[in-house]
Design goal:
Elements: H1 8-17, H2 23-31, H3 38-51, H4 55-76, E1 83-89, E2 94-98, H5 101-126, E3 137-143, E4 152-157, E5 167-172, E6 179-183, E7 189-194, H6 199-204, E8 230-233, E9 239-242, H7 246-259, E10 270-275, E11 281-286, E12 291-293, H8 302-320, H9 327-345
Antiparallel strand pairs: 1-2, 1-3, 3-6, 4-5, 6-7, 8-9, 8-12, 9-10, 10-11
Helix pairs in contact: 2-3, 3-4, 8-9
Length: 346
């Protein structure tokens, strides 16, 4: 069975509805799963390739897996000594230059162990947990400029075939890498890109091709009945207020059809509002699969905590009543009070 990242609420909702994703939709969800590493995604896609009865999907999965394997092998290849692997941490600090990929990974593994030891020591001494402590390390593959030909940089943009956003061209060298693979603090690749393979090869698996699984948009049922629900995004731990209800979601899906919008996977999204330390609020676009109905934990500072919760409640009313009954004015006032208390704390 292929596991897909989703909140407990959404998983239970699907079970109650007896709703199951098709193999094609499962492939899309796996490929875009923000909690899976590169290897986890490819392993799941290989399992789906070997079990699906969808012939078209099987072919697409084979193409994607073969492409990713070749892309990675090419990224690791520096047999001619034309490149250097530059390691950079999450803060943008340089962590060294290496002649081969494996040596760069070994160094990152050493850094990860040192980071973990430092974090454990801090938590033990301060009796508190480090929030969002994940460190990311990027391995940039940089060409060593030795000739005039090396001073031309390939720029590739991937978009819908035939559109102005799908092209490649050469420009003057500007120091950009030919590819980057990002490792998390477990040493797993979580983000990656490379322009080392040909455009013809890249176009075969272009995720913006409407028939491909990688970037496909499809309708999903909505878990929450009404706007104003307090939620947590299980991917990054952010709390906010859901501005969508089930009716709003269905209207959104209908508008996509009526206006014939060109949509992709990123458009499977609901808007969540959250307080910021100012006079207003901000928003984020979240996949409904990743939303869990949950209130945020209490803050250490009681005055700030009270103001924050008052702001969240005002945002909830604002979303539920669509700004009517003076809820917009009340929300703005509560945001301002929360911002003032946070400023006073500084």
């Amino acid at each position: 069975m292929i596991d897909i990242t989703m909140s407990d609420d959404y998983r239970k909702f699907l079970e109650e509805q007896n709703y199951k994703f098709t193999d094609f939709q499962t492939a899309t969800l796996v490929w875009n799963d923000p909690m899976k590493s590169r290897q986890q995604k490819l392993t799941a896609l290989a399992l789906l390739r070997d079990t699906t009865k969808d012939i078209v999907l099987k072919k697409q999965l084979t193409e994607r897996i073969e492409y990713e394997n070749k892309l990675f092998d090419t990224f690791k290849d520096n047999s001619k000594g034309r490149y250097v692997y530059f390691v950079e941490d999450k803060e943008g600090d340089s962590r060294g230059f290496f002649g081969d990929y494996e040596r760069a990974v070994r160094y990152i593994t050493k850094c990860i162990a040192e980071d973990e030891m430092h974090n454990n020591k801090y938590m033990e001494e301060n009796k508190k947990e480090i929030i969002n402590s994940e460190l990311l390390y990027e391995i940039h593959k940089q060409i060593i400029v030795k000739s005039d030909d090396d001073e031309k940089n390939l720029v590739r943009c991937t978009g819908r075939p035939g559109s102005k956003f799908n092209y490649e061209k050469y420009e003057d060298y500007d120091g950009l890498p030919v590819g980057t693979y990002t490792l998390n603090n477990k040493g797993n690749i979580v983000h990656w890109w490379s322009d080392e393979l040909s455009k013809e090869e890249a176009d075969i698996v272009n995720p913006f091709r409407p028939e491909r699984f990688e970037g496909a948009f499809f309708e999903i049922p909505f878990c929450y009945k009404s706007a104003g629900t307090p939620v947590k995004d299980i991917v990054d731990g952010t709390y906010g207020i859901l501005s969508f209800g089930e009716d709003d979601w269905n209207d959104y899906l209908q508008e996509i059809k009526d206006r014939k919008w060109e949509v992709d996977y990123s458009d499977i999204q609901a808007v969540v509002l959250y307080p910021i330390k100012s006079e207003y609020w901000d928003h984020m676009h979240c996949n409904p699969l990743h939303l869990q109905m949950e209130l945020p934990p209490h803050m250490e500072n009681k005055e700030e905590d009270v103001a924050y919760r008052r702001a969240m409640e005002a945002l909830s009313d604002y979303c539920f009543y669509k700004g009517e009954h003076n809820t917009e004015e009340t929300a703005k006032r509560c945001m301002r009070e929360y911002g003032e208390i946070c400023a006073k704390k500084k």
